[in-house]
Amino acid sequence: MKITLRSKNKFTKKGGEKKMKYSKIVIALVAAGLALGTYITSHAAEDVRSSKHNLATNPNILATGTTEVCIYCHTPHGGRSDVAGGAAPIWNRSLSTATYTVYTSPNFDAAGTTPGTPKGVSVACLSCHDGTVAFDALINKPGSGGYIGANITNGNVRAGLTFAGAFVDADGSFKEGERPPTGTGAEPFPNLGTNLSNDHPISMEIPATDPQFAQILANIDGAALTAGHISPLYRTAASTLPTDKRDRIRAYPTAGDGKAYIECASCHNPHEATSTRFLRYPSFVGTAEETAIGASTLNADRNAGSLLCLSCHQK
């Protein structure tokens, strides 16, 4: 059979087209993979395994009996969905029954809450940090078949794990006292105690009558709060907010009344790995204030120049 030059070219051309299409597909897939890698890398700082909340590696609160990291706060099955209206998802910890001495001043009121009993997402934080609940007071133990039950009926039931370290008391909770032992080099106040009168107010409505908060209240996403979601807090333009929503200071719909409330997680991200104080970023990205401080300084100390405070407070 004789193959003409035209036919040969035709087959060669089609083969070349197939190779070209294949190459384009490969290039597109590689580009997509690189883009995805960039996206993932841009959020790599939120890595609880590398944070002090990883009790499998934290020498001051070192757990034995399991290497699981998330279990001390969350469980994939059987967790509570009603903690802080769902703001603490699939919650796996017993909640404290303590009554707190809360912050008071002429300018702040615990509106929408019972004084001495925070009801927002802060109660999840306090279930470790008030020093009254054991670290392994869990609903669902690590592994299979370890379901204890809803902590609301079982109280401070422990999962049987053991803990060692400078911050651990005999009952498996934070050591008594409101500061870590001297000379440990640890951050202050891991155990807040039940006296919160000298700490930033939590479960407290941002006061609508205080003019220093007029700017952030004007920027509140009321629709989000009404739907049970969070709203970013910022005084300047929305363009100054950190790109990653998880880095943003936020208000919570604590009382379900459509108003904005401050909670522990308004300023702290418990999954943060690069900030030793678990701080979110100030709402001054790309502004003269950020430039004056310097990005590297702000990365090292997210409240450098008090920018975290000044994101809400007009002082």
List the main descriptive attributes of the protein structure presented here.
disordered N terminus, 315 residues, two-stranded antiparallel ribbon, single chain, mainly alpha, two-stranded antiparallel sheet
Structure commentary:
By secondary structure, the chain is mainly alpha-helical. It is globular and about 50 Å long. 25% of the residues lie in helices and 4% in strands. The strands form three sheets. It has a two-stranded antiparallel ribbon. The protein has a two-stranded antiparallel ribbon with strand order 3-6. Among the domains are: 125 residues, no CATH class; 88 residues, no CATH class. The N terminus is likely disordered.
Task: Give the arrangement of secondary structure elements.
Blueprint: H1 5-42, E1 62-64, H2 122-129, H3 151-154, E2 162-164, E3 204-205, H4 214-218, H5 222-226, E4 231-232, E5 250-251, E6 261-262, H6 264-267, H7 288-293, H8 295-300, H9 307-310
Antiparallel strand pairs: 1-2, 3-6, 4-5
Low confidence ranges:
1-14, 29-44
- Helix/strand/pairing category: mainly alpha
Would you list the SSEs in sequence order as H and E? HEHHEEHHEEEHHHH
Portion in beta strands: under 5%
The shape is globular
How large is the count of helical segments? 9
Biggest sheet statistics: 2 strands, antiparallel
Summarize the structure.
This protein is mainly α and about 325 residues long.
